[in-house]
Amino acid sequence: MEDQLFNDAVFRLGQLGADRALTNHKLLRRVSRILARYTGVEVAGVAVHNDGMKHPASQTYVVGPWSDEQSSQFLDWSSWADSDSDTATKLSSFKRNTIHTLDELFADDGYQKSRLYNEFHRPLNIIDQAYGIFRRPDGCELFIAINALEADGPLSEKALTRFTKIAPFIAKAWAAGWRREPSWVKGLKPHCRAVLELVLEGFDDDQIADKTGLTYHAVRAHLKRLFRAANVRSRLHLMQAYKEERAGRPDNSPRADQPNDVVTVVDPMDTAFGLSFSAAS
């Protein structure tokens, strides 16, 4: 049964990695749900830091007992404040492709004083967390985490073992599917970004309003902001501008200072999963 669950999760992740039509948001949503389902935790998520962990996340998705609309708040937390500089620096120094726990990040009572605890964990009754950081050749990094709610107690050994086992495959699917975005997307607020993602997925204004909880007029206002940001005049041109500029960017081009502990992508015909994983020993 355990092997079957693992094989099913890996198969689903392989499909995601090979699906070139997925938007970044949908990719993160699906890998988060696979992660939560396989590890058996209620709260699991991922955050992408395009320029490394010292810089704010460009997108995040967290599965939990809340709506997609409520989950958009987590992007605000992952945008480092001045008080988070020590946390960001420490995360940047951690070994990649390895699972870490909270006690490695915070010493003594530092956790209770952190913004992570006061603005994210405490309001959501999260009492335990394990995480891993995975790096692509282009310097883009993925933060993967599973969390335990107070009602469930600390993370179980089974959850931690499963997390350690599936995390590299989560990273593979992300490395293959994630696309660096046009420069004008970086400055978008969470609600405006959510509208853009739904436009790219083909939803109309009324559907976007229903899915985001925004009013119809608020959706239209966000669309106008998107038109200005992309320098276009219509919804169709917005979609074209996003896809054409994104398609022209090298997805996994190595940087000159590329380290060895990176997630790499190979030809889909090379393995059954379609991807390979390399890590420093």
Fraction of residues in helices? 40-55%
CATH architecture group name of the largest domain: 2-Layer Sandwich
Order of helices and strands: HHEEHHHEHHHEEHHHHH
Spatially, the strands of the biggest sheet line up as 2-1-5-4-3
Q: Assign the CATH class of the largest domain.
A: Alpha Beta
What can be said about the biggest beta sheet? 5 strands, antiparallel
Alpha carbon gyration radius: 19 Å
Q: CATH H level of the largest domain: which superfamily?
A: Transcription factor LuxR-like, autoinducer-binding domain
Counting structural domains, the number is 2
Overall geometry comes to globular
Number of DSSP E strands: 5
Beta-strand residue fraction: 5-15%
- Could you say what the CATH topology of the largest domain is called? Beta-Lactamase
* Amino-to-carboxy terminus distance: 30 Å
How many H/I helices? 13
Q: What structural category arises from helix and sheet content?
A: alpha+beta
Report low-confidence residues grouped into runs of 5 or more. 265-281
Task: Average the pLDDT over all residues and give the rounded result.
Answer: 82
Description:
With 281 residues, the protein is of the alpha+beta class. It folds into two domains: 2-179, Beta-Lactamase (2-Layer Sandwich); 184-247, Arc Repressor Mutant, subunit A (Orthogonal Bundle). 48% of the residues lie in helices and 12% in strands. It has helices at residues 2-18, 24-39, 68-71, 73-77, 85-93, 102-105, 110-113, 115-121, 157-177, 190-200, 205-212, 216-230, 235-247; strands at residues 43-49, 59-63, 99-101, 126-135, 141-149. The protein has a five-stranded antiparallel β-sheet with strand order 2-1-5-4-3, with helices on both faces. A hairpin with a 5-residue loop joins strand 4 and strand 5. The longest helix has 21 residues, at 157-177. The model is unreliable at 265-281 (pLDDT under 50).
